[in-house]
Automatic annotation (TrEMBL):
Listed name of the protein: Branched-chain-amino-acid aminotransferase
Gene3D superfamilies recorded: 3.30.470.10, D-amino Acid Aminotransferase, subunit A, domain 2
UniProt-listed NCBIfam families: ilvE_II, PRK13357.1
Residue numbers carrying N6-(pyridoxal phosphate)lysine: 201
Annotated PROSITE patterns: AA_TRANSFER_CLASS_4
Similarity section: Belongs to the class-IV pyridoxal-phosphate-dependent aminotransferase family.
BP term (GO), one: isoleucine biosynthetic process
Protein's organism: Propioniciclava sinopodophylli
Main EC class the enzyme belongs to: transferase
Lineage top rank: taxon: Bacteria
Keyword Amino-acid biosynthesis: yes
């Protein structure tokens, strides 16, 4: 398929001084670049009208299906600046492939992987000055998303859909940094169930997780860990991250992809980098009781959570209504080693032996 992009530069683009001011203290997801990408899909015509245009509000009919039935999916990825000034995406085809798996689940049209990646490249190239220097793990967070933009009030797959890409320069996601975060284990709220949308990256999953997230905040925790909806035992993932444990005998353990959790690209990368560092990657069923008992008796020495936004964050402790469990390894040695291993590839400080980087600028 060949779709050419109509490039409409933003006449009101920020000055270099304004961009520098934003990059000095970007926060997370607060500032957006000068442009966005938009591509339309209509039944019969397919994908068309690919445009790079000034970032700005969308015009949506109030009856647009996404506003009523939540037919929407998104991705999260980053562009990294290397010391030589070049800019790289990290495994963008994994995002493109996952986007299409989400699209299939939500009855949205397939977006050819090369068009997804090209749209991201177009935005990063035109707004490359917003990709921060690597210092302090700053990067350009990229948010591709697809919405049912058809004006129609009826529960069926939309016949007009819009794909958009926006980008935001970001600093660290957690202000706690590598000090470690506390995780709340909710026994009341579920994120996903068998046959549901847990392994799709759709907005509704995140709206549904907020109540548990706020329960976690009330208990002084930064994130919440979900247990399977039925059975109340199998560990799934956090609201926006996958979870790992490191055992005393050097196993790197994470819940198997059960269909109810998101198959994180960071998760997959950690399994490979961890193995390269001498750990044994294990994807299996993990019971919450086993995790907590294992922390208490020293079987599991470290725990961490991971995702594109926060990279890898050590877990200082788990809390639930029943108590508090703190892994012995509060120096997070293994976690930091894996974290550095992944970051060093992303920022070009280590050899990209897996061929994960895609140079864009
Ligand atoms: C629910 C959930 N799990 C896991 C992840 C981690 O996925 P990735 O490593 O691809 O960012 C994310 C973030 O996208 C997420 O939202």
């Amino acid at each position: 398929m060949s779709v050419s992009f109509d490039i409409q530069p933003n006449p009101g683009a920020r000055s270099d001084a304004e961009v520098a001011e934003i990059l000095a203290s970007p926060g997370f997801g607060v500032y957006f670049t000068d442009h966005m990408v938009s591509i339309t899909w209509t039944k019969g015509q397919g994908w068309h009208s690919a445009t790079v245009k000034p970032y700005g509000p969308l015009t949506l009919d109030p009856s647009a299906a996404v506003l009523h039935y939540g037919q929407e999916i998104f991705e999260g990825m980053k562009a990294y600046r290397h010391a030589d000034g070049s800019v790289h995406l990290f495994r963008p085809n994994m995002n493109a492939a996952r986007f299409n798996r989400s699209a299939a689940r939500m009855m949205l049209p397939n977006l050819p992987e090369e068009l997804f990646v090209e749209a991201v490249r177009q935005l990063v190239q035109i707004d490359a000055r917003y990709v921060p220097e690597a210092a302090g793990e700053h990067s350009l967070y990229i948010r591709p998303f697809m919405i049912a933009s058809e004006a129609f009030l009826g529960v069926r797959a939309a016949e007009e859909v819009t794909f958009l890409v926006i980008a935001s320069p970001v600093g660290p996601y957690f202000t706690e940094g590598v000090k470690g975060v506390d995780i709340w284990i909710t026994d009341e709220w579920a994120r996903a169930g068998e046959g549901g949308t847990g392994n799709a990256k759709c907005g509704g999953n995140y709206a549904a997780s907020l109540i548990a997230q706020y329960e976690g905040y009330e208990h002084g925790c930064t994130q919440v860990m979900f247990i399977e909806a039925t059975g109340k035992d199998r560990v799934e993932e956090l609201g926006g991250m996958n979870v790992f444990l490191v055992s005393a005998d050097n196993e790197l353990v994470t819940p198997a992809l059960s269909g109810t959790i998101l198959d994180g690209i960071t998760r997959d990368s950690i399994l490979k980098v961890g193995e390269q560092q001498g750990l044994t990657p294990v994807e299996r069923r993990l019971s919450a009781q086993e995790v907590l008992d294992g922390i208490a008796d020293g079987t599991f020495t470290e725990a961490f959570c991971c995702g594109t936004a926060a990279v890898i964050s050590p877990i200082a402790g788990f809390k639930s209504k029943k108590g508090e469990w703190r892994p012995q390894g509060q120096a997070f040695e293994r976690t930091i080693q894996i974290r550095d291993g992944v970051l060093d590839i992303q920022y070009g400080r280590a050899e990209d032996s897996f061929g994960w980087l895609d140079k864009v600028a």
